[in-house]
Amino acid sequence: MMNHKDCFKALARHVEDTDIVLPVYSSAFEWLDLQPRKLNYTAHGAMGLASSHGLGLALGRPDKRVIVLDGDGSLLMNLGTLVTTAAVAPKNFFHFVCENGTYEANGGHPTPNRGNVAFASLAKAAGYKNVYEFSDIKNFEQQIGAVLSETGPVFVHLKIERCGPQERDYNRLHGVEARQNFKDALDAS
Amino acid sequence: MPVSASSEGAGTKKKLSGLSIIKEIKASGIEFVISVPDITTSEGLLRPLAAETEPRLIRICKEDEGVGICAGLAHSKKRALLLIQQTGMLDSINALRGVAVEYSLPICLMVGLLEKEPDLRPRESKRYGVRIVEPILDAMGIAYHEIEDDSDLPKIRPAIDEAYKNSKPVVLLIGRRPS
Fold first, then answer.
1. Is B103's Cβ below 8 Å from some Cβ in A?
2. What pLDDT does A84 receive?
3. DSSP string, A102-142
4. In chain A, what residues touch B100 (CB-CB under 8 Å)?
5. Edge-to-edge strand order for the sheet containing A130-134?
């Protein structure tokens, strides 16, 4: 089991300024604190849809690497996205799911069948060819650079601890300013 | 927000050409069609679209995925059309609420009206699942147009252009099976 922050710090070392990153809920607040970058896309409008927004961006901007930092609860709301993405097979698409077994932003309730869902296997069965699973931070630190240089679509299952209490100002994720800043940054890049 | 109703009265012998709809879709600059199959538009529209290389057809598992995909494409300056059935649109109301309406994004939908009786306005349908569609769009403040026969084809391109110009969603309601 990895610490959320340690995991994202390791990931951040390999994320380039030109990459589009789509973090959700708890991951979004962790990521924004660590990496308040211009091409963070945090306004997804409805739970579960980050990977679908990411697929649209990957299709529309094949010149850019698109990195989705999904949650387990979010992915469970949109499992079909794995099949759709495997079929479209965008080379620039990287889908991470952070499994903590909890709807952290909705009261800390457990996800269905917590601890028994093999997300990497689901992705593999949906047609993803490149699938990884990490529960040890040292392994993750050693391999994440190579994982991000793979040809997409790539799916990465991260087993993480719960974030714990967070200050969740949702305006930071989908307020008018956040959306406009991303739009301006994407238009300019 | 009924921007336009069907332009002809009942009783005339009408048809709706799928190839003419595709011509309008292409003329609107649509580069991607995102779709879950719908029986109203299956043969006359989706199948001929699938046989072409442009616009690119992306088959999805569930309609709300398409709302997200269209949003990502809109941010990338690519025009897309979400081709689905009204049942899928009803299933995607929260995505449309959040992504299309609250974020004010140009999400363009072409929606086949399953079980709508030809020559009846959608809100006059005997089918509950049909007659609730326009009042729901009214409640959400989403513009829509009835596409009932070939005389309605000229509505398609301006509706899509308007959606992208004003960054607002629009729904094109297909009221009979295109031939």
1. yes
2. 98
3. EEGGGTSEEPTTTT---HHHHHHHHT-SEEEEE--HHHHHH
4. 45
5. A20-23, A66-71, A93-99, A154-159, A130-134
